[in-house]
Amino acid sequence: MHELSALEKRLGFEFRDKSLLQRALIHRSYLNEHPEFPLEDNERLEFLGDAVLDFVTGAYLYHRFPELREGPLTNLRSILVRRSTLSRFARQLELGGHMLMGHGEAESGGRHRPANMCAAFEALVGALYLDQGLDSVRRLLEPLILPEIARALQDSLEKDPKSHLQELAQAKMHRTPRYATVAETGPDHAKVFTVEVSIGDQVYGQGQGPSKQQAAQEAARQALQQIRPVHAAAEATHPPIPSLNEE
Q: Please, are residues 112 and 95 in contact by the beta-carbon 8 Å criterion?
């Protein structure tokens, strides 16, 4: 129970039903070696936590990004609830050291295995939901998922600036970017293309590359460097996004 108290302090929540928290940390291998143990393993709580995570992250993204359509929202949610992300959350909370598991599982690295860590985190979410409801789950998740969202958006921007520019331009400027090839230089086997991107009547970026597609991506990247700080400053002055605790 002392170890549970230390975990509760780290989580920032004191469970009313301590057995729920204990169950969230029981790997089935522990019961194989201790069949007399009075609690079940964490698999049922893992099932519940998986559903709760889908709902809470989906609701948060829906309110946090009103300009995103279903496809990007689904992709972003899948990043937040995938095994590698959830196991990272579990490591941040140091769940591995609190898990009960069989000797063989522990000796083979079970406390650090992504599948076990992910399951423990999902079970913890399920336990917290049963003990204190959705509001506490939201408060647990918010500081964990915000850095993951920022990382995912940055990765998306670096991989496909054209798509990001289109989403931003349509949501904030109600225009669709237009790309035009303005120059081709060099011999046929080593051409360099220059592409400009315009939104409305204004040119926002120009890029060069060995193909029109690469030149367009570079033009979009330059355009984003101009547009994003302007809208970020506007949103900082008039924030349109509700907090995670708002319904």
A: no
Mean pLDDT, 10 residues at a time, over the chain (247 residues)? Answer: 82 95 96 92 97 96 88 90 96 94 94 96 98 96 93 72 87 92 92 95 94 94 80 41 37
Residue 124: Cβ-neighbour burial (10 angstroms; 0-12, 13-18, 19+)? buried
Residue 242 lies inside a defined structural domain of this protein: no
Edge-first strand order for the sheet with 202-209 is 178-185, 192-199, 202-209
Could you give the number of structural domains in the chain?
2
Beta carbons of 55 and 35 less than 8 angstroms apart: no
Pairwise CA distance, residues 15 & 161, whole Å: 45
Short-list 132, 165, 184, 153, CA closest to 17: 132
Provide the domain limits for residue 86.
2-159
Q: Rounded to whole angstroms, what are the CA distances from 43 to 80, 118, 160?
A: 20, 11, 38
Active site residues: 50, 122
For the entire predicted model, the pTM comes to 0.68
Residue finishing a domain among 106, 125, 159: 159
205 in the same domain as 94: no
Indicate if 154 and 177 belong to the same structural domain.
no
Domain boundary residue, one of 128, 159, 190: 159
pLDDT at residue number 159: 67
